[in-house]
Amino acid sequence: MHTVVVGTSGTTADDVIAVAREGARVELSDDARTALAAARSIIDALAARPEPVYGVSTGFGALAVRHIGPDLRGQLQRNIVRSHAAGMGPHVEREVVRALMFLRLKTLCSGHTGVRPEVAQTIADVLNAGITPVVHEYGSLGCSGDLAPLSHCALALMGEGDAEGPDGRVRPAAELLAEHGIEPVELREKEGLALLNGTDGMLGMLIMAIADLQRLYVSADITAALSLEALLGTDRVLAPELHAIRPHPGQSVSAANMSAVLKGSGLVGHFQQDEAPRVQDAYSVRCAPQVAGAGRDTLAHARLVAGRELAAAVDNPVVLPDEGRVESNGNFHGAPVAYVLDFLAIVAADLGSIAERRTDRLLDKNRSHGLPPFLADDPGVDSGLMIAQYTQAALVSEMKRLAVPASADSIPSSAMQEDHVSMGWSAARKLRTAVDALGRIIAVELYAATRAIELRDGLTPAPASRAAVDALRAAGAQGPGPDRFLAPDLAVVEAFVRDGELITAVERITGPLA
Fold this sequence. Notes:
GO molecular function: histidine ammonia-lyase activity; phenylalanine ammonia-lyase activity
Enzyme class: lyase
CATH architecture of the largest domain: Up-down Bundle
CATH superfamily of the largest domain: Fumarase/aspartase (Central domain)
GO biological process, one term: cinnamic acid biosynthetic process
Pathway: Amino-acid degradation; L-histidine degradation into L-glutamate; N-formimidoyl-L-glutamate from L-histidine: step 1/3
Subcellular location: Cytoplasm
Strand content: 5-15%
Number of helices: 19
């Protein structure tokens, strides 16, 4: 099994995905252990002084005015975890919790938080044991970090609360730790606070969404090309010289992908042979690279922000080891991550919208240039894909609602001490829903476009298109014919897109698509 080593210099998106989704093992580097010990020595020195230090010898948030004596500091750290583990609602997905824990571990290992090495090692042990604390949907405002989600994870480290074992059963965390020989953590000064104060949940979801959207953008370029082909459109609008004079990089990438899929097609260009020859295709076909390309450029910006956040040490207060001091700060504010999470929900909704418009065009006999109504076998007796498009339209409508920014909202908390929050966790949660919806929308377009291509008798599709059709049929999604129970076919197509099989089939002909 792949092992990810956590050091002082941050980590990579690939490492996050390996731990979250693939169950990669986690190890602490020697430099991380050294940095952890050095930062802890600063905390211990400050704890021994009579002057109050936030997070070390004071209360938290609006209660920071109270100085806490040495005899109550362990209880203080336990209490912040227990009281902040106040989430409600459905359980969050296992991959999200694993990403959250791994990213918190990454920050601890930076040497800027002041926890002991054994606390970091316990997080690694819990991840490696396949133990996943129960985290709830609601509880984070995305400022002072993802407090409630991280608190539920910290609670499990203490041997309290519930967790999911490697077998998927939810049990008391104490039982699971004992079964795997993991000693519960006894928190000391600042350690409870350091376990809670980060953007790790929203960042983990951003990283996974970027990976998923990269795959879906390539898939959407393929389905756009298949729809263009099925509609007998022209590929002349994909010429690189046309995109070079408007130099948005994503646009050129999408156009190149579509051109690669359409290479050798016997369907493109037949638009001139209609009874009423077309001068140009509709926007949903002609402007596909411009819309998908703008989304790709937004995705590139999100990747830049995620990389910066991966390099960050987010905590409050932070230890500055070179200066031997601890300082309060506002780096826990989730605004940078929240904004790009919302940006991605917007561009994903627009990609879904243009894909649905192409599907509708394929099904409309007045705009499909010779295809049967709804791609039905015997229109009137058969309804074809009429209601598949309804499902797709419902998903598009849902995505438009999900595109409303969460980060534009703020609800003051902690007796107005935390009077402006990012709502980044909410932005991340709705983006995950939007990504799932987009995959289904692209799947419906793929289902319609492949059926339409097969209905173009006497015309030969591009080799890459033929490969997509053949692979989809081999996966179990049936081709043209009389009406049948559609939901199973749509489930097959959804999995075909989600698992990357569409890209794999096409790239066997085209080579790698960007």
